[in-house]
Amino acid sequence: MGRLAVIGVGVMGEALLAGARRAGFDDVVVADAAPGRAEQVAQQYDATAAPTAEAVEGADLVLLAVKPQYLPEAVQQIAPGLSAGAVVVSVAAGVTTATLEDGLGPNVAVVRAMPNTPALIGEGVTAISAGSRAGDSALEVAEKLLAGAGEVVTVPESLQDAVTAISGSGPAYLFYLAEAMVDAGVGLGVPRPTATQLVAQTLRGAAGLLAQDDAHPTLLRERVTSPGGTTAAAIAALDAGAVRADVAAAMRAAARRSQELSGQ
Ligand SMILES: NC(=O)C1=CN([C@@H]2O[C@H](COP(=O)(O)OP(=O)(O)OC[C@H]3O[C@@H](n4cnc5c(N)ncnc54)[C@H](O)[C@@H]3O)[C@@H](O)[C@H]2O)C=CC1
Ligand SMILES: O=C(O)[C@@H]1CCC=N1
Questions:
Q1: Which residue ranges does the record assign to the Pyrroline-5-carboxylate reductase catalytic N-terminal domain (predicted)?
Q2: CATH topology for 170-262?
Q3: What span, in angstroms and rounded, lies between the C-alpha atoms of 151 and 46?
Q4: pLDDT-based confidence at 262, cuts 50/70/90?
Q5: Structural domain boundaries of the chain?
Q6: With a 6 A CB cut-off, is 11 part of the ligand 1 pocket?
Q7: How many Cβ atoms from other residues are within 10 Å of residue 227's Cβ?
Q8: Residue 114's closest CA among 131, 98, 127, 129?
Q9: What is the DSSP string of 94-131?
Q10: Superfamily assignment of 4-159 in CATH?
Q11: 102 CB under 6 A from ligand 1?
Q12: Which of 13, 31, 57, 190 could cross-link to 65 by cystine, CB 3.0-4.6 Å?
């Protein structure tokens, strides 16, 4: 599998590193700008810590997991040390493969990826797109890396802003819904720990039903909704509050922000 370098081991870098270890990558170097962070993560995942510029030396595969705002600096640091033919996978929201290719030079293949935080428990989903110099073998190696963190789908880069709005930011929408449900449950008199347990297991169970073959959200919702019953009353209140339109507006805002980040 060759050597993997992970540049930036914050929330997402650590989640994908855990996945990479599960997928069998056993020669891993990690770097982070925060003092002591790389050493701590290296110890936890049986990897080696190195400064950013040195971490990529001899690496066949490089995972870039720093915030978009800090990416130009990280790219500048790693470009001189990259091996010819290395594959660089970036998870930075809104940063195009063209921008990365400009900064990294002509000798590497770039793959843009949008993962999500359930990667932490191997239940993530990542959408990947090939840059202009990334052929099938580069996509395959990126897929191997990311498959340890969950499912992987390939999309044209033109859809990256949209998939960021769906699955990249998506877990936050569900946590937001969970917070609202717990608070409302407490408002209805249920103790907070019990309300939290009920909401968490309801989301887990509903997600399990949705993940079954041929599952359709509309049919699943209809199965819960008895004529003249409690669910019908709840859904009518959601519709009166235009929640469906609000979800669409929220996702358009996320896609727009992803696009804005491309211009920065
Ligand atoms: N958190 C999420 O749900 C998702 C995040 N992403 C993307 O993942 C990237 C990382 O996000 P998070 O992990 O949430 O951020 P984070 O802030 O938790 O981690 C970023 C890490 O990069 C380190 N860093 C910054 N500059 C560096 C440099 N030059 N060399 C080495 N390390 C450096 C920071 O010290 C930090 O530990 C972002 O580009 C974000 O767009 C993508 C999908 C989902
Ligand atoms: O909020 C963000 O910008 C990152 C990208 C997708 C999820 N978190």
A1: 3-94
A2: ProC C-terminal domain-like fold (1.10.3730)
A3: 24
A4: confident
A5: 4-159, 170-262
A6: yes
A7: 5
A8: 127
A9: T--HHHHHHHH-TTSEEEEEE--GGGGGT-EEEEEEE-
A10: NAD(P)-binding Rossmann-like Domain (3.40.50.720)
A11: no
A12: 13
Q: Which residues are annotated as a binding site for NADP(+)?
A: 7-12, 65-68
Who lines ligand 2 at CB under 6 A? 93, 164, 168-169
Dihedral sign for Cα 93, 98, 102, 104, please. positive
pLDDT tens column, 65-113: 999 999 999 999 999 999 999 999 999 999 999 999 999 999 999 999 9
Neighbouring residues of 55: CB distance < 8 A, sequence distance ≥ 6 = 5, 6, 7, 29, 30, 31, 78
Measure CA of the first residue to CA of the last residue in the chain; give whole Å. Answer: 34
> Three-state DSSP class for 100?
helix
Confidence check: pLDDT of 148 > 90: yes
Q: What is the ipTM score, two decimals?
A: 0.97
CA distance 137 to 12: 24
Which amino acid is it at 175? F
> How is residue 159 annotated by DSSP?
G
Tell me the average pLDDT of the chain.
96
